[in-house]
Amino acid sequence: MEEPIYLDHNATTPVADEVWRQMLPYFGAGMSGGAAGGRSRQYGNPSSRHGFGRAARQAVEEAREKVAAAVGAHPSQVVFTSGGTEANNLALKGAAAWLKPGTLAVSRIEHPCVTRPAKDLRRQGWKLREIAVDAECRLDLDDLERTLAESPALVSVMLANNETGALQDVAAVADKARRAGALAHTDAVQALGKMAVDFRALGVDMMTLSAHKIYGPKGAGALIVDKRVELAPLLSGGGQEWGIRSGTENVPAIVGFGAACELLPGRLARVLQEGTGLRDRLEAGLKKMGAAIFAAGAERLPNTSFFALPSVEGETLVMALDRAGFAVASGAACSSASSEISPVLAAMGVEPSLAKGAVRVSLGQENTAAQVDAFLAALGGELSRLRSMAAVMAV
Amino acid sequence: MEEPIYLDHNATTPVADEVWRQMLPYFGAGMSGGAAGGRSRQYGNPSSRHGFGRAARQAVEEAREKVAAAVGAHPSQVVFTSGGTEANNLALKGAAAWLKPGTLAVSRIEHPCVTRPAKDLRRQGWKLREIAVDAECRLDLDDLERTLAESPALVSVMLANNETGALQDVAAVADKARRAGALAHTDAVQALGKMAVDFRALGVDMMTLSAHKIYGPKGAGALIVDKRVELAPLLSGGGQEWGIRSGTENVPAIVGFGAACELLPGRLARVLQEGTGLRDRLEAGLKKMGAAIFAAGAERLPNTSFFALPSVEGETLVMALDRAGFAVASGAACSSASSEISPVLAAMGVEPSLAKGAVRVSLGQENTAAQVDAFLAALGGELSRLRSMAAVMAV
User: Fold this and answer.
1) Which residues, in sequence order, are bridge partners of residue B207?
2) pLDDT band at B387, cuts 50/70/90?
């Protein structure tokens, strides 16, 4: 049976073969058949003093250098976590623990792993202020000014939205936040690997990254932290990661994260060269079918297309496309919550009836023009089928 | 170059080949050469609705059943985490968030990922009560009674100590705790795979497990939670794990955890058959060299030997043995803190001069009698060398 065509790279990506090859020795298994290229097994605990431990420690530190280099940070600013969710929780709750409870400001289109911790903090006396976005998923700069006039202690605005792909001018947000005396955090999970991401240039105090969105493994992420920021750990114990994140390091996943970061410049060069060609091809076809493209007027990630076809439920379409061999998303991935209308589209003021039709295609490095064309053909077929069924039902 | 002999299985274990084979399809890489046995790539996000996502979801749920079955729990009681440290933090901080601040009681020999969160909770108004142990690393039952008379809200006592291997009668502790109106938690990370561990029989409300101590991968652990216990999440976001632990599931690591649990009955049968033969052989040799064996009078894990040789520093010995090709530990592994005297030995009242000599050997399934003999020979050689050096220095 042929493998379905995967068009859901904002949800997760496969591990790249080169990444996997670098991870392999750190499991201590599966090394027969020359897959590890003659390297020895290094399954030690990085806290151990013997050779196995030292090799694991060295691998973690090399990965830290690679992650730092990929985003213009210093290795000492990289705190490894189990993923983006943990890094976002650490940023908000960890920073809040050192601050006097005040106002926490986040955009209305953040991922739940920013909005939920923000809401959790209300129980500890924090006030939550949500910053509006416009109909194109762009931060409302007037509302940002009003928010900053309320002297928030911490501001979190994502670099690229996971659903629409819309980009925010985080450098400007960080600059304004700093002038207003607030710490600035950005969730760069969806941006990394799809555009240049530079910690210093963005000027934020904290930035969240995840490995499994950039052809690295699940189970590794990082919070990049300016050393001036004091963070209380969420996970305390053995004192790993400068005491900010205890727990035996997930060595293979961290090594894979480093390897995936090392591959980023090459991938970004291809992204720049190819531009939005494949997505434009997709969206031209979608528009012919009458689709509305969300945030089409915003600067967007080059791989993401979030759209709706009038009077067709997104969920229904996703399941029909799945049967036809195409993996796409109906709303926010990375969330077990479901079938409700996307809070991102609600924040953009999209009509609920249209929002219900939302489908997201997020392209990846292995996708081709032929696959896009096949997807459009399948979508067209499903649309005809669903609409003829609806016509029959309406009779 | 020959691989050194690994004798540090309480720190971490290599991933078993069979575990690794089951994990492989979930990376989406490295599937050439038939290593995956013809299975297809399943790198999806379990929250996705398409086939990739459903396959990942099914793999996570199958792993949940395997972990539950290994410890006599129901699958709905298994909350996957990034490892033992996160599970211990979740148990203590998550339960405390739902309770009125009161007294939290933990034994004096807990792993730092229990004692640190316990200390963290003092900032939220909790009182920390540490329960004493005797010279053999056994819980002081009189001090337990005195502690329970103080009506603690939560009691945490580990099943097996990571350094000495000493076992506690956690079933009795849990029974007494329940009668005193306290929730009971046990850290079973070191016990799992080395003795029978049964959640229901222990009668605790919460139990911590880790995959990488049982020939599973780093990056997966679990908190087994009785459904009557209310837990606030440490990591909130997409709502995975019933909202108790958000974040994209680390699918390959969770699959590996399940596979490692599935292998436990076979391993335990071997452990029971072999008994403490290999360790007895080791300790007989150690005693001939004049070693003091810590907690020798306690019931202990069959694989663990924690000892000291008078007037030889443990750290020095570990480094010398490392050069000779043997990987052992000097004190608590899983901890970046170092060179201080083991808090476990301090709690047991061991003289600091002797505690400084502490060395831990923790045997694993691949170790042999020949390796133990080779280790003893190497240790004897290093001892002679170090003592003759010391004699020269003392002249």
Assistant:
1) B186, B224
2) confident
Residue whose entry in the numeric block shows the structure tokens 């799945």: A322
φ/ψ of A106, rounded to 5, equals -135, 155
Chain B: give the shortest CA distance to residue A133, in Å. 21
Q: Do A112 and B47 touch (CB under 8 A)?
A: no
Give the whole-angstrom CA distance, residue A338 versus residue B238: 10
Give which of B217, B257, B6, B209 is closest to B91, Cα–Cα. Answer: B209
Tokens of A174: 């960080």
Mean pLDDT, rounded, of chain B: 94
Q: What is the token pair recorded at B116? A: 């640190």
d(C-alpha B67, C-alpha B59), whole Å: 12
Classify domain B5-12+274-394 at the CATH class level: alpha beta
Distance CA A222, CA B275 (A): 43
**What DSSP state is assigned to residue B3?**
P
Helix axes A264-274, A251-262, angle to 10 degrees: 40
In this prediction, the answer to ipTM > 0.85 reads yes
pLDDT in tens, B177-217: 999 999 999 999 999 999 999 999 999 999 999 999 999 99
Exposed/middle/buried for residue B204 (C-beta within 10 Å: 0-12, 13-18, 19+): buried
Q: How far is B395 from chain A (nearest CA, A)?
A: 31
Count Cβ atoms below 10 Å from residue A32 Cβ, excluding itself: 10
> Are the beta carbons of A15 and B29 separated by less than 8 Å?
yes
pTM (2 decimals)? 0.96
Sign of CA dihedral A259, A264, A270, A275: positive
User: What is the fold, at CATH topology level, of the domain defined by B17-262?
Assistant: Aspartate Aminotransferase; domain 2 (3.40.640)
Q: Residue B381 carries which side chain, given as an amino acid letter?
A: G
Contacts of B273 (CB under 8 A, 6+ apart): none
Query: What residue spans in chain B does CATH classification 3.40.640.10 cover?
Result: 17-262
Chain B environment of A338 (Cβ under 8 Å): 49
Listed in order, the ranges of chain A carrying CATH 3.90.1150.10 are 5-12+274-394
Residue B109 tokens, joined: 């020999």
